[in-house]
Protein: Elongation factor G
Organism: Desulfomonile tiedjei
Amino acid sequence: MSGDSLNRTRNIGIMAHIDAGKTTTTERVLYYTGVSHRMGEVHDGQAVMDWMEQEQERGITITSAATVCEWKNHRINIIDTPGHVDFTIEVERSLRVLDGAVALFCAVGGVEPQSETVWKQADRYGIPRIAFINKMDRSGADHLRVIDMLKTRLRTNPLLLQIPLGTEDRFRGVIDLVSMKALVFDDDSRGMRVIAQEIPAEYLDDAQNARQQLVESVCELDDELLESYLEGDTDIPVDRIQKTIRKGTLDLKITPVLLGAAFKNKGIQQLLDAVVEFLPSPMDVPPVEGKDAQGQSLSREVEGPFSALAFKIMNDPYTGNLTFLRVYSGKVTAGSSVFNVNADKKERIGRIVQMHANQREEIKEARAGDIVAAVGLKYTKTGDTLSDENAPLLLESMEFPEPVISIA
Ligand code: GDP
């Protein structure tokens, strides 16, 4: 894959405490990206609803270990990330293969003990995150309390990118603090269409104060910006703010925070935009590390010989086993042989498929950065490395340094 298309790939997980709305959010993301991908930009609320109803009849599959969708010319692979501590090894496996994550919180429940466990795991893997505070429509929704919990319980540095327009069941939009626009979720399209407006007068003071805070936090991330800010230059261009937020997120210095109500399609487009804008591509993460045949440590750039990690095996009624792979370097073609480094055996990859919301697409080859499912592997187990036979690389095995204690 060329660097350019790799730059336009996002491999993400959605981390959430049970009941925070992960299923709903994933479904809405798949609906929305499906609509916009097929129809171009969505202006017509009715067309969206027709499409959603058709899709609902056929059933959206979100039980796959990885589902691919498209947004604004980017390919987003959503890797299923279990939210429950009981599945901690599965959580670790999924964290191992993703580059960035959306951490979902309920606007009422906030940070739950289990969210803390998964958050710490993601810290250990150095995974950049954005936070989505969901269920802003619920009575008792309090995003400021959640933000406080992000600071005190998760010890992260949240950066609020939006303030809500309306509270609880009157939550009707957000004020985007970067562009300083009011984004209103249109009720006629059941929230799927977003209308950008001037900020209503009664919100202007709050919005200006919140933006000032945002600008100050952004300046603290960049010495040059801070210097000119302290000299009185507070008028920072929007693209500079965005770039600095992206860098701060990738360096794990901040967690951008967005608001929404997935159930009513509210905030989904802004969440997708933030995934594309702020989360890393496979080019932004360090080269994969492993050991060569002599046991020497080795890191491998994306252009290097083929290497991939099998992170999940699912039984499929039509094809038998589907082995989900994250390709780290090089490429592999359907029908070719690969070397399973753990089993010390050659294996043939029959077919390669990509799982979409409601269909699977057969592809000829998988390249660095891709998340795909291989059909026909016989010996490969979860956690095994597949590699070029002539340049074997054993990817680092997963470490589980801390025993996980369930909190009742
Ligand atoms: P998961 O366990 O994290 O996958 O959560 P689900 O997506 O299954 O959602 C749990 C419950 O919360 C369901 O009853 C959803 O309908 C509800 N829910 C999800 N998103 C929202 C939201 O934005 N607002 C409200 N009020 N309810 C929501």
Notes: The radius of gyration is 22 Å. Confidence is low (pLDDT under 50) at residues 399-408. The CA atoms of residues 116 and 154 lie 6 Å apart. Residues 16, 18-24, 134-135, 137-138, 261-263 surround guanosine-5'-diphosphate (CB under 6 Å).
